[in-house]
Every structure is written in structure tokens, then in C-alpha cells.
Amino acid sequence: MHPSPVASFVSSGGAAVDVPLTGSPDAEAIFREYAPYVHRVLRHLGVASEDIDDVMQDVFIVVHRKVADFEPRGSLRAWVHGIAIRVTSRHRRRRSRVRETAKGDALDAIDPRTPAETLDAQDARRILAGILDQLDDDKRAVFVLYELEELSMQEVAEAAEIPLQTAYSRLRAARELVYEAVRRHQARENFR
Fold first, then answer.
1. Which residue has the higher pLDDT, 75 or 42?
2. Which residues form the RNA polymerase sigma-70 region domain (predicted)?
3. Confidence class for position 21, pLDDT limits 50, 70, 90
4. Interhelix angle 153-160/164-191, nearest 10 degrees
């Protein structure tokens, strides 16, 4: 584990573990194991809450289409994350060109937390999302996968399809930006 000042804002909770492979991976088993994890990763990668289900569906359509081509030389988790990163990137480019407005009322799930806990968690997510929005997509992906989703740096490099040293370089640059944003936020809070 590696401590992070971001942990005071959001806890990643329940990180998916790599599925041990016996034979070829099954798209349905991958979905069952990774769907909640991919949902969280998409949120951290900046997918709007109203688009997460659609983007997640796109991720698992690609997984289903390409599962037969998966080569177990790397980790299944990194492979799924790589797909999620690429689908998210396409979605964000498409989303910036076309803005949709959702109609209708969405039903909210019942939250067992107290109203104060809910507000604190919502505030923390809002602050973290604002900080992550300051990063470019490449740095954000590396930071999210390593710091929030706790993938190994080798898995991050595989998922992002970049050399290991490039992943380390992007993480260092992202950390500097995130830590500075956290310091600015804390200074503003302490000033109030």
C-alpha cells in the first residue's frame, strides 16, 4: 500500500482483484467480477454520472468482442482497464462535441448513511472530481488506476499501453498537480 493525501477525500473501497485464469476467460465471468470496479473507474476517469451505464456497457461489449483474443501474458485486470481507458477517451471526445440533455426522473437508491455522512461523501467526491478534472486524460488515467484503484505500476502501464517509465513519469506529474490542488483546497478551508 502507498499512502495518499487523496485518501482523506475518497476511499476506493472494495478494489477488484485479478481473476485467476483457468483456460480462456469467459466474458460473463469477467463482467460479474469487474462490473462494479469498472463502474467506479469510469466515474474516476471523468465519465458523467448520467453516462456511466452507457459507457460501461460499451466497455463490456468490447470485452465480449475481444475476449477470445486475450493473451494471458499480462493481467486480466490491466486488460479490462485498458479497454475502459480507451472507451472513456472516445466517449469524452464524442461528449465534448455533442451535448445531450437527459429527460425524466431518475430513481435514487436508498442510502443507509446519515444525511451528514452523505453530504460529506458527496462533497469529497465533488472535490476529488474537480481536482481530477484539472488533469489531462493521460495523467488522470495513470493517477486513477494507481492511486485510487491500487493497480501495480506494471498493470497501469499495460492498461494504458505505455512503457513503464512513462507511467511512472505521468504518475509523478499527476501527483504534483493533485497534491498542489489538495493543498490549495485545504488552505482555502483553513482560511474560512
1. 42
2. 30-97
3. very low
4. 110
CATH superfamily of 17-101+114-191: PhyR, sigma-like (SL) domain (1.20.140.160)
**Given the C-alpha cell 469510469, which residue does it identify?**
42
User: pTM for this structure?
Assistant: 0.60
- What pLDDT shows up at residue 19? 46
- DSSP string covering 159-189: HHT--HHHHHHHHHHHHHHHHHHHHHHHHHH
User: Which amino acid does the sequence have at 161?
Assistant: E
CA distance 99 to 96: 7
Question: pLDDT confidence of 172, banded at 50, 70, 90?
Answer: very high
Cα 184 from chain centre: 23
Sign of CA dihedral 84, 89, 92, 93: negative
